[in-house]
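Now for one record.
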Amino acid sequence: MKKQFLRSLSFSMIFLANLPIWAQTGGPALAPSDLLPTANLDPEPINKNRLGLSYRMGLNISVDFRKLGGLALSNPGPATGNTVNRNYDNGYNRVDSSTNSGGLTWYWGYQSAQSVQGDNLVLQSYSTPANATSKNRQDDPQHGFEITYDRELYRDKHWRFGAEAAFGYTLISVSDSRLLKNTAYRTNDTFALNGTIPPLPPYNGTFEGPGALINSSPSSRATEIIARAATITGVRTVDADLFSLRLGPYFEIPLYKKFSLFFDGGLTLAVGRTEFSYRENVTISDPAYNVTLSTERHAGAGSQTDFLVGGYAGAAIEYALTKEVTLFTGAQFQAAGRSINKHAGKESVLDLGQSILVAFGVSYAF
């Protein structure tokens, strides 16, 4: 009402001021509308560009450690043959200075009375394969950040549509110290004593001899499987620097007052530099023959760079502090494949195929 009154008063004053001119000229010199100030009625400009910065928390990023363990300290040689150096984990049967004349040797030894079984000497060789696996190891959350750029392409009363590009970095570190059990194999070779009474253990015959003679070739060989007889201890670690680029459309729906929903999805390109390191000890224990074998500590490390391609889909909720500044939080499901790192026969598999990224950030529109 006040604006209407002022406008009417202004018009009246202009009309009265021009009355003398109208009287002399017979009409108004200027139209009243020409003398009134004009207002800019253009709509307020729309900010179609937006920059965002967010902290990203990575979840469900897992690593499998494979081909762990492996131990074989002795070599029993072939199952047959009279002139073979055979080494066991609790004794030996080797070629003596007579080249095992007559199929007999005095160059033999054993460590435990359990190896003497009747008129036979039974010696054991143990091994365990390097095929143990520690699966699905996680050290959530993994930490990172992301910079986003959004460009609005279309706006409707109830929704908005645009394109999004984002660059991100995530530092991944997964460590595993799980104790693992694996299968062991026991090779039993039987040598005939031929009535010889063996010296008390531990006994170690020599190459030159002389000594008690026994058969130099096994009369039989048997291989047995011993479940969970091998124990693997140590630490395995994967560290990765993951750089990602996301490209795709977004869809925004304004909600009540300052709140809105935000959906996005598209292509993920990632470059990851991973480093795999390990330290391990392998032990085989067989109480039946009083045998315990252990390796020296094995250690190694290797790194590589991988290029990964995948996709993403996400949703977020936004709150507008001002026309330009908006706070947001949301989550994305991201599938970017696997990175396999091999070193000295061991493997690590970094799985980014089902990762979830939770984001907290702020954006600025211009």
Q: What stands out?
A: Residues 49-365 form one domain. Residues 1-17, 19-23 have pLDDT under 50 and may be disordered. The chain has three helices and 22 strands.
